[in-house]
Design brief:
By secondary structure, the protein is an all-alpha fold. It is built from 8 helices and no strands.
Length: about 150
């Protein structure tokens, strides 16, 4: 066999080997992606229920880890896939739901803030406006106009 024929045969074998390795790697990446896409719905639902039940206080990630059996990173990723948001944002939205209901009942903003887990009235107002696009006062005006 001439030198160029041997080089060509070796080059072809290397190319075939490279294609096989690349295909194997792509398949393993796809399998990893599907495993990362898995959601332990029971664990995530336990976390969501715990957040709803404890919306008025600070909830630490170690509490959610203990309840779900997932690491904070796995829980956050799975929670986002199931609920479309992070556990922290989910908790914040539960607080805002509670605050809106209390405001509609006629409670003043300072007591609403204290009862719904916000540090103080300005914190409630800033969070309300940031999340919903208007202040609690404007929310009440819009609700009254309906």
């Amino acid at each position: 066999m001439a030198l160029s024929s041997r080089a060509s045969a070796i080059g072809g074998a290397v190319a075939d080997s490279l294609v096989a390795v690349l295909a194997s790697h792509l398949l393993s990446c796809a399998e990893g992606r599907s495993a990362r896409g898995h959601v332990d719905t029971a664990a995530v639902d336990r976390a969501a229920e715990f957040l709803r039940a404890n919306a008025t206080r600070s909830v630490h990630s170690r509490e959610l880890e203990a309840i779900t059996g997932l690491s904070r990173f796995d829980l956050c990723a799975q929670f986002r896939r199931r609920h479309g948001t992070s556990p922290h944002r989910y908790l914040l939205m539960r607080r805002l739901e509670m605050a809106r209901a209390m405001l509609l009942q006629g409670d003043d903003a300072a007591s609403v803030a204290a009862q719904s887990g916000f540090a103080d009235q300005p914190h409630l107002i800033r969070t309300f406006k940031s999340a919903l696009g208007f202040t609690p006062r404007r929310y009440l005006q819009l609700a009254a106009a309906k």
